[in-house]
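Structure (tokenized):
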């Protein structure tokens, strides 16, 4: 009689798309109950009904339209025939996973002005499920628990000081009866931390600060207190006035084998280390992975990819756990491909670096010194002597979009990109409390008017899906996606890789070769990661479609032009034949303003726009379509209305706060002069 190993048997049964009990997690492998699919966050599904031979028959089973055209980044969760997802402004939805019927929705009513605090759109990356509850972090810093059956609020706890520019966009994780959540806001000058809350009551169990208090400030009464001196020794001056940064805004992974939580830590605040730390020190724990005891939150080990980082090289990107055979021995590792362009394999028992190799071209470093684990920096990279064009940049060689790992193929799949950025010190640096404080003059990246120059710049912006062998640290295959800002990844035992892209296509590739096997045109840019699940013997693939986010919101080179339609949840099954139609609004004509301004006023407006407005409304006032194109806005034509909106905050409930704290009425009028100048250019050359 032939017998099978239990894991093999579970995969075979899953191939029949049956919901069977997983002996490790005691949940159905037909469900998708956690952000990364399982605790290891490999985004690998054992389901095989949809495979290379059947995927060509995949069709739309149903779709649901949401009430927002802002970015959709959530990983839907599926349990017991219900799909749970989140949208912009931290709204939560539960739908029947087979029919798409809306079961309930919950609006946490985030104040519109909170949108200004969000560096990278009013997005939310998803929920957590545990013991009949749905847990979600809200943009304004709350952690809420909802009844999974009714959507009714069970409890809500405030996780941040709302007087400071903190936000939450990441998905919570539940570990040993506690809900873990971090926050964002480093661009605005906050101090990062991760917190654990009792899943039943919302009471905080522990907190770990990723940046120390200023010297002489005393302990925080937190789990991080035991290593304050170690952290402080890596900083100089008084970094507390800018917070220091180090926010834990994305990856939080539970490593059961070592009873530890691995957190990815973000950039320093301001970006330029010369401002935040007098140009000295490693600045622990910015741009690091930190391991914490799962019970107490106390420090165990860390690995810092970019000591004293100065480029917005966050290390918050996907952390994947696996066992790899390296040098003939099984090694329990974590894998990460963060913004800085290097793929890391780290021993998760002690944090020691096993290997590191760049997966895209990099110029800030020539590689990693394996004796020390530190990068060998380009002497010009810290822009101390002038402009440095960094590759990759703060947009990331790989950003938040989750990568995946297929243990059968032995490959990791990275949504990679090449987006250079010019860095130069912002001199003289003037702090803007509550606003962006980078120490970098972004206006230097203003786009030219010359069409040939624009085309050349566009050609430097690339996006890829890269299959990476983590043992050999080399590329297995790649697919050129054209531009950057593409979606996250799903892989399966069916030999497939699913990934969406900024052109609005959801594509299935062969896991071992990258051959395109199936595609669906959603008509909306896809930046979220797909999932797969099964209900009553039928396997489904689901993805949130809605463009936006840190790259999609401001890009002047969007793959799809014009105002964005509302986002959708798209669900596919073999033989699906649901109808689907996307309507796109027509572009309004440019508004021609009769006022005349001096060239100096227009130039002043260009600088202010580049450093303040471009991160939302697009470089050179070229909108991606997620937010209004200011060149076409009716507000542009009237000085008083422009001042009411930009200075006074007349539209703050829509996320457009007033800038009276940071800009004078004269400054704001100069911005209008610059936008009006761009509108005139658009009228002359419609493809600008």
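Design, position by position:
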């Amino acid at each position: 009689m032939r017998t099978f190993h239990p894991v093999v048997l579970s995969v075979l049964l899953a191939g029949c798309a049956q919901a069977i009990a997983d002996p490790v997690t005691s949940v159905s492998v037909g469900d998708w109950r956690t952000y990364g699919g399982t605790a290891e966050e490999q985004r690998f599904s054992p389901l095989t009904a949809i495979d290379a031979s059947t995927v060509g028959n995949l069709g739309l089973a149903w779709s649901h339209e949401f009430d927002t055209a802002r970015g959709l980044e959530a990983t839907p969760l599926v349990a017991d025939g219900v799909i749970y997802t989140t949208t912009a402004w931290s709204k939560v939805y539960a739908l029947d996973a087979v029919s798409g019927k809306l079961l309930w929705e919950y609006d946490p009513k985030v104040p519109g002005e909170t949108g200004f605090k969000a560096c990278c759109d009013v997005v939310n990356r998803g929920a957590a499920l545990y013991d009949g509850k749905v847990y979600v972090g809200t943009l304004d810093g709350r952690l809420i628990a909802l009844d999974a059956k009714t959507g009714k609020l069970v409890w809500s706890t405030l996780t941040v000081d709302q007087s400071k520019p903190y936000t939450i966009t990441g998905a919570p994780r539940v570990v040993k009866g506690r809900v873990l959540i971090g926050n964002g806001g480093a661009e605005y000058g906050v101090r990062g931390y991760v917190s654990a809350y009792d899943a039943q009551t919302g009471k905080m169990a522990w907190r770990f600060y990723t940046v120390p208090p200023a010297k002489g400030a005393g302990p925080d009464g937190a789990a991080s207190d035991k290593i304050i001196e170690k952290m402080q020794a890596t900083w100089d001056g008084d970094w507390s006035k800018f917070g220091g940064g180090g926010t834990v805004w994305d990856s939080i992974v539970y490593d059961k084998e070592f009873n530890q939580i691995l957190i990815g830590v973000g950039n320093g605040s301001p970006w330029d280390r010369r401002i935040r730390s007098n140009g000295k020190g490693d600045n622990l724990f910015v741009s690091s992975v930190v391991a914490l005891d799962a019970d107490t939150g106390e420090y165990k080990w860390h690995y810092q990819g970019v000591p004293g980082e100065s480029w917005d090289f966050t290390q918050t990107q996907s952390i994947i756990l696996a066992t790899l055979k390296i040098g003939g021995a099984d090694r329990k590792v974590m894998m990460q491909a963060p913004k800085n362009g290097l793929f890391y394999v780290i021993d998760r028992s002690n944090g020691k670096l096993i290997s590191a190799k760049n997966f895209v071209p990099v110029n800030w470093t020539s590689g990693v010194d394996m004796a020390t684990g530190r990068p060998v920096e380009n002497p010009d990279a810290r822009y101390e002597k002038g402009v440095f064009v960094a590759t990759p940049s703060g947009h990331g060689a790989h950003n938040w979009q989750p990568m995946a790992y297929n243990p059968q193929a032995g490959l990791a799949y990275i949504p990679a990109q090449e987006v250079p950025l010019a860095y130069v010190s912002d001199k003289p640096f003037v702090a803007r409390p509550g606003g962006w404080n980078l120490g970098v003059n972004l206006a230097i990246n203003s786009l030219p008017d010359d069409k040939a120059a624009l085309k050349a710049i566009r050609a430097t912006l690339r996006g890829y899906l890269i299959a990476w062998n983590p043992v050999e640290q080399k590329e297995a295959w790649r697919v050129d996606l054209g531009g950057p800002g593409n979606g996250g990844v799903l892989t399966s035992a069916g030999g497939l890789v699913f990934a969406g892209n900024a052109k609005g296509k959801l594509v299935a590739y062969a896991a071992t070769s990258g051959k395109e096997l199936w595609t669906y045109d959603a008509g909306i840019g896809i930046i979220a990661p797909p999932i797969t699940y099964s209900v009553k013997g039928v396997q489904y693939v689901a993805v949130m479609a809605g463009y936006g986010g840190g790259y999609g919101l401001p890009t002047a080179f969007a793959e799809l032009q014009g105002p964005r339609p509302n986002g959708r949840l798209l669900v596919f099954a073999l033989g699906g034949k649901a109808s689907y139609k996307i309507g796109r609004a027509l572009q309004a004509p440019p508004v021609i303003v009769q006022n005349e301004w001096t060239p100096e006023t227009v130039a002043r407006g260009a600088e202010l726009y580049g450093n303040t407005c471009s991160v939302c409304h697009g470089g050179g006032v070229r909108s991606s379509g997620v937010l209004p194109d200011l060149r076409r806005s009716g507000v542009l034509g009237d000085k008083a209305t422009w001042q009411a909106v930009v200075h006074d905050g007349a539209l703050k409930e829509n996320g457009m706060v007033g800038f009276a704290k940071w800009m004078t009425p004269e400054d704001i009028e100069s911005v209008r002069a610059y936008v009006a100048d761009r509108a005139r250019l658009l009228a002359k050359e419609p493809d600008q």
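Reviewer-requested clarification: The CA atoms of residues 231 and 573 lie 51 Å apart. The first strand starts at residue 44 and ends at 45.
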